Amino acid sequence: PIKSGYLNENNGKIELDEDEKGYVKIWRMPEQNKFYCIGADVAEGLVTGDYSCGIVLDEDFRLCASWHGHCDPDVFGDELVKLARFYNDAYVGVESNNNGSSTLRAIVRKEYWNIYYQKSYNKIVDSMTQKIGWNTNIRTKPIMINTLTAYIREMWLELPWETLISECLTYVKGDDGITTNAQNGCHDDTVMALAIALQLLLEGRDESYEPEIPRDQKYINDPLEISANCEEYEDLSIDKYGDEEYTV
Q: In whole angstroms, what is the distance from residue 188 CA to residue 183 CA?
């Protein structure tokens, strides 16, 4: 990253207080009039548990920043609001499962407006309904993971973060060949946050949409050059890279 630190409000403006140990990492600073999305995966906040993670993508499918650390779910909501305001009032999608509801309530209390609502068709009332946040379930998880897999494989995403790529390398299929999760002893918070951010960025686009990125300008993120953060792993999360086959 080009900068690391903590986001704080000063006279109504969000500023980065630089600190290499900070929860926020920045690869690209916000640009005026640019559109940004934030995908967020919420953890319990335990020091020894999973991390809460927010990932910022820009309209060109580039990872611009991340928030990654341990804190209570409601505090994470406050941090996401600061991150979103820093990036031009970014469009924020928070996983609503489990602790995500606390994070979403905190965001609403801050009166932040640009929040993702998941839409679905209700057969009983014959109309579309919407609920705040991204709900990961048996229907939506394959969509988000398969889409992320394709975008990594086709090099449509710029991913300069070692932690993220390491987690991709240890995100595997279960014994049933269907379910996907982090391998034992590993984390998947960055993977899930990225998958949600990508879904927000693709919202409203046709399923056949493909980014118009010339082959010589595609984002090369070589996972084979980065060591995974686990002692052992059997499968890698990118289903095809070069001449070798991987699974998700």
A: 9
In the chain, what are the domain boundaries? 3-230
Sign of the CA dihedral with 166 first, then 20, 82, and 90 last: negative
Q: Write down the residue that tokens 């927000």 correspond to.
A: 200
Reported confidence tier of residue 241, pLDDT bands at 50, 70, 90? very low
With a CB cutoff of 8 Å and minimum separation 6, the contacts of 227 are 166
Q: Which residues have CB under 8 Å from 178's CB, separation 6+?
A: 142
176-225 tens-digit pLDDT: 888 999 999 999 999 999 999 999 999 988 888 988 887 777 777 655 45
Residues 191 and 164: beta-carbon distance below 8 Å: yes
Q: Which two tokens stand for residue 103?
A: 């994070």
CA angle 163, 169, 171 (to 5 degrees): 100
- Provide the CATH topology of domain 3-230: Nucleotidyltransferase; domain 5 (3.30.420)
Rounded Cα distance, 25 and 222, in Å: 20
For tokens 């609502």, name the residue. Answer: 117
How far apart, in whole angstroms, are the C-alpha atoms of residue 70 and residue 48? 9
